[in-house]
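Hi Y.,

Following your request, here is the sequence exactly as I used it, all 96 residues.
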Amino acid sequence: MQENVLQRVLQLPVVSSTCESLQRTYTSTKEAHPLMASVCEVYERGVQGAGALAMWGMEPVVRKLEPQFAMANNLACRGLDHLEEKIPALQYPVDK
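Below is the corresponding structure, written out as C-alpha cells. Let me know if you'd prefer a different format.
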C-alpha cells in the first residue's frame, strides 16, 4: 500500500495535537455562544456541500492525473522523511 503524504503529516504528533487543540477550542466556543454555534453549523453544512460538489467535479481530472499525483506524493513522502530526520520536534506534541 502506497503511503499518503497528507495522512503522514496529519499523524505527526505536532500536527495532530495542534488539530486536536483547535477542535477543542472550536467546540467550546460553539458551546459557550449559541448564536455563534448556529452560524458555524450553517457554515459547516455549506462547506460539506461545496466539498462534495468539488469532489464530484474534479473526479475525471484526478483520474487522468493519477500518475502525476502518485509521483508528487512519493516525492513529498521522501521530503517528509528528510524533515522528520532533521527536525525531531515534529515527533512531539505541541505542548512539549
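The CA atoms of residues 8 and 77 lie 8 Å apart.

Thanks again,
Q.
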